[in-house]
Design goal:
The chain has a single domain, classed as Four Helix Bundle (Hemerythrin (Met), subunit A) (Up-down Bundle), CATH 1.20.120.450. Strands 1-2 form a two-stranded antiparallel ribbon. The chain is mainly alpha-helical. It has seven helices and two strands, in the order ααααααββα. The radius of gyration is 17 Å and the shape is globular.
């Protein structure tokens, strides 16, 4: 396997573990508290990461690997949440679902041949998305939301420490 590809997959795996561990270390109160109006709580971030891991990155990668050059649709988070409410789900289940989807994706990526890595799906707005490009998008997406999760955690701590 090409070294850059291996490094990308390793980082994607590591940031997924870090995201899940950060969530697991939070109290329920901390996970449910939004740092400010119009900002997501850690729980909402977890739901978003789980949903996009399952419904975007894993699904599209599978389509590219098994149904080469197929078309994929748009994923609109707000619509998905309306149709699939997660208010009743335990944070532990959300984290476990995210981790399971990420592990499956990592297995697929590690086992993909060079030709499969270059397979693509057609997206209505983004055009052709290869397996490799989707892995890079996922890594960037994961880093963005890990930073957001850390920010939520720190702002919650700051509120608690402020007299």
């Amino acid at each position: 396997m090409e070294i850059k590809r291996k490094q990308l997959i390793d980082r994607l795996e590591a940031v997924g573990k870090e995201f899940a561990q950060y969530l697991a270390d939070m109290s329920a109160a901390e996970a449910n508290a939004a740092p400010a109006p119009e900002q997501w709580s850690a729980r909402h971030l977890a739901i978003h990461m789980r949903d996009t891991e399952q419904q975007v990155f894993l699904l599209r990668t599978e389509r590219a690997l098994y149904d080469e050059h197929s078309t994929v649709g748009m994923f609109v988070q707000e619509e998905w949440e309306r149709e699939h409410p997660s208010d009743h789900e335990a944070l532990e289940k959300i984290i476990a679902d995210f981790r399971a989807a990420r592990r499956k994706l990592i297995r697929l990526l590690r086992n993909a041949s060079k030709r499969e890595w270059e397979n693509w799906v057609a997206h209505p707005k983004l055009g052709k998305l290869s397996v490799g490009v989707m892995a890079v998008f996922n890594y960037s997406h994961s880093l963005d939301h890990l930073a957001q999760l850390i920010d939520v955690h720190e702002k919650t701590l700051l509120k608690r420490l402020n007299p």
